């Protein structure tokens, strides 16, 4: 109904005029409807889309609030049970053995260079009490932080990492065994 009243108002307007030559097709509908405007009449066209965009541009856009970063993951709880700390795959055995091997390898080479004694002569000439004292002291010093729940990885930083200590200990263990085997086969000091 609204469409028909709008059409009637357009057709009745003095601005539009249907020419007499409009063609009629087989359905009796005019195919050419061209409105003619007089030369003195003006037609104003107003675009509403620009007004709406201007209003959208004038509205302040809300700034999104940054989401807080998730909290850092907690370090896994380290077991302080004696059986867990000294287990075969626990944190203590390889570290303690590696630390003892590093001290033993360096001290064996130092005594060999200074006195000219091989490893077996060093042990038989009073090296056993030094070995036992060093082993007990270093074992307790290594176990105390582990029983308090401090992990080795939490204290490693920069060049002195826990992995570097493990690898140095492994090489020292191999070096100490190789030194003793070489001196045994050679029958004297390495140098």
What features would you highlight for this structure?
about 190 residues, mainly alpha, 2 domains, 6 helices
Oligomer: single chain
Distance between the termini: 116 Å
Say how many strands there are: 0
How would you spell out the order of helices and strands? HHHHHH
Q: What is Rg?
A: 48 Å
Number of self-contained structural domains: 2
Low-pLDDT segments: none
Walk me through what this model shows.
The protein has 191 residues and is mainly α. The protein has two domains: 1-39, no CATH class; 82-186, no CATH class. Helix content is 54%, strand content 0%. It has helices spanning 2-12, 48-58, 82-85, 93-115, 119-147, 162-186. It is elongated, with a radius of gyration of 48 Å. It starts with a helix and ends in a 5-residue tail after the last helix.
């Amino acid at each position: 109904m609204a469409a028909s009243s709008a059409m009637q108002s357009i057709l009745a307007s003095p601005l539009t005029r249907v020419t007499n030559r409009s063609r009629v097709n087989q359905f009796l509908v005019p195919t050419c409807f061209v409105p003619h405007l007089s030369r003195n009449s003006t037609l104003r066209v107003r675009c509403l889309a620009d007004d709406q965009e201007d209003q959208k541009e004038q509205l302040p856009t809300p700034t999104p609030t940054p989401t807080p970063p998730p909290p850092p993951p907690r370090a896994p709880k380290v077991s302080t049970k004696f059986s867990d700390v000294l287990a075969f795959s626990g944190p203590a055995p390889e570290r303690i053995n590696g630390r003892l091997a590093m001290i033993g390898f360096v001290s064996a080479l130092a005594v060999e260079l200074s006195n000219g004694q091989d490893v077996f002569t060093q042990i038989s000439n009073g090296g056993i009490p030094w070995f036992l004292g060093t082993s007990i002291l270093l074992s307790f010093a290594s176990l105390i932080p582990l029983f308090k729940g401090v992990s080795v990885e939490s204290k490693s930083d920069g060049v002195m990492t826990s992995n570097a200590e493990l690898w140095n200990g492994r090489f020292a263990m191999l070096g100490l065994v190789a030194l003793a085997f070489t001196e045994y086969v050679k029958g004297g000091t390495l140098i």
